[in-house]
Amino acid sequence: QVQVVESGGGLVQAGGSLRLSCTASELIFDASNMGWFRQAPGKEREGVSCIKWSGGITDYADSVKGRFAISRDNAKNTMYLQMNNLKPEDTGTYYCAAGGGVQCGLLAGLYDYWGQGTQVTISS
């Protein structure tokens, strides 16, 4: 059974930091591009960042460039999202996704497996 599980969400003040983690089944992790998405109340889900299965290529939404950093440890089947200088507009449910494809991307349709999400709330 394929599993994708996020952790690390929480409530922090603006300017603070959080690190999200995502663990996926070994069956899919090594060969999968991995992505982070988020969804705020009343808004559509948006791509935040992604990392190619090899770890050599990453991409970020313009709104988080310079503040967020994605990484992965294939030996631990785990991906991370380090989020710094957080802003209230970063609030939302953050989802981890795994998928195939040649390159990673920020479109939800590129991903086959999704976690249940972890809540991130940034207070002003």
Word description of this protein:
The protein has 124 residues and is mainly beta. It has one helix at 26-29, and strands at 4-7, 10-13, 18-24, 33-39, 46-51, 58-60, 68-73, 78-83, 92-99, 113-114, 118-123. The protein is built from 1 helix and 11 strands. Strand 4 (33-39) and strand 5 form a beta hairpin. The radius of gyration is 13 Å and the shape is globular. The mean pLDDT is 94.
What structural keywords apply?
single chain; 124 residues; mainly beta; seven-stranded mixed β-sheet; four-stranded antiparallel β-sheet; 3% helix; 48% strand
Average of per-residue pLDDT values? 94
Pattern of helices and strands? EEEHEEEEEEEE
Q: Main beta sheet, described? A: 7 strands, mixed
Count of DSSP-assigned helices: 1
> Tell me, what's the shape?
globular
In total, the number of strands is 11
Determine the N-to-C terminus distance: 40 Å
Query: What percent of residues are in strands?
Result: over 45%
| Rg, Å, rounded | 13 Å
SS content category: mainly beta
Q: State the helical fraction.
A: under 10%
Poorly predicted tracts of residues: none
